[in-house]
């Protein structure tokens, strides 16, 4: 999902993309019970925030000794104190538990080599966490997995090149090192084509490393910036904090796409990372209406998002009036739905006509809001 908009009420407005909304993908694998389904916008609210269960023996289940001073969790995976790394390792542990043949050894090697997220505090934290989750999936990929078609006809390696391309536009805007060739075009698909061409013939691990190092550079640079600093990838300015949330959302969605195809479990983001992303999506609603040619006028909706990371917002449908936490102000309609499902709807996953929501008030207005929701999504 590639957002080029001004959700904070920036009168500069959104930059329209020439790409159409991403179509819903095939049903998610049953191996991912904690992740939103990409075939519909419903999502479960279950998640696991605890560390892997401790090993019952001093020696790991696969015969590896713990590192000096380290603690081993299930199947001998080191227990990480960082919750994001812990969730990523949990995903690999769950996959390994049912893995056939030699996959257990390969997955455990990958788990031990999984890197910590580049940043776990500040405005970059949600994005850094999803980068860590995707990196954990990539660490477990078999050679054949890199040629699997994930989404948009892209192989896994090409999908990572696409993420590096869209991330690279933000990196270029904040002065961070950019992966691949110099940015020749600010348009997402053009930059993606350049990055896919650059990655052609490379070992997949090189593409992974280029993407990951660029993400780390973005996080490091953003950590020293005022979150309200306006940057303008593609020529349209809005706060760097919102650009990072857009990057979190697209990385989350494509990690989910990848987990579905590869049959890996995927832990949910932390609640504290889902909430700012949900807030970002709530603030995008008037922009999606505008881009879809629908006039919000002086109307407003109440958006109540349930489950992990949820909340309630008063959302004016005029882009000049930003959404705020619900204060009881009058609205013409109210929508209650699951927070992660709503984020994925704006990310182009699911059919608006079938979106599960409780509705009050003007049903026609709600229909317009939901049908417009994916307007800013891209590949």
UniProtKB/TrEMBL annotation:
Top-rank taxon: Bacteria
Residue span of region Disordered: 1-76
Keyword line: Isomerase
Keyword Transferase: no
Feature: compositional bias, Low complexity: 1-47
Cross-referenced Pfam families: MDMPI_N
Domain Mycothiol-dependent maleylpyruvate isomerase metal-binding, residue spans: 130-257
MF-aspect GO terms: isomerase activity
Protein name stated in the entry: Maleylpyruvate isomerase family mycothiol-dependent enzyme
Organism this protein belongs to: Sphaerisporangium rhizosphaerae
